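Course assignment 3, question 2. Fill in each field.
Student: A.L.
Task: Predict the tertiary structure for the chain below.
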Amino acid sequence: MNQLKNLTLVLTLSICFFGCNSSKKVAESQNGSNTDESFLQNGYVKAVLNENKSNSGCGSILINLTDSKEVLDPVDFEYTEGKYGQNIWLKYNSLRMQNRCTEARPIKVLEVKKRDE
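Answer field:
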């Protein structure tokens, strides 16, 4: 009977101990999630959202990567949260399809977040 009480006590204490540690980790990761380094580590790139005003066959939106000056053509993407010329964090996949235009390569947008700069 004593062994059962001891086992129950040990299990209860270990659940409390490990439960407290896990919530601290979540809180710490949420507080530091807005840094440039954390976005870059999570696969985002710095970009600028631009309106396509040319008749080149691209979509109505073009995305310029800040670091490489590469121009991307997002396929099936409508961005309504902000305005053109806005700095964004972009996570995307390249598409293996023929380019719709000569000035940009097609991509599939996975996530977009506003970037303050």
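Instructor remarks: The mean pLDDT is 78. The chain has two domains: 1-31, 42-114.
Grade: pending
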